[in-house]
Model the fold of this input.
Amino acid sequence: MTTPLEKTLKRELPIQGRRYVVAISPDGLKLTLKGKRNGKELRWEDLVSGDAALAVALNASLGALETSAQSTGTTPRSPRRSRASSRRGRK
Done:
């Protein structure tokens, strides 16, 4: 006999040198970078339905998760305009 899943289980999982948290709940599965709130979710109903597009979307979303993990968190700044050029447009 198996134990029913009634509440969320969280486990840490190392993948390619990074730490992730896998949360398994009665609603589905969620994978997030450790220390972050937002991650990728997969509902059990979507997994069981067997949609072919689901596999493509899952692979694309996991690729996006890896890309965000590799970024340093800084965004490039737009070039600053000189004060003279910003004043020209004002009346």
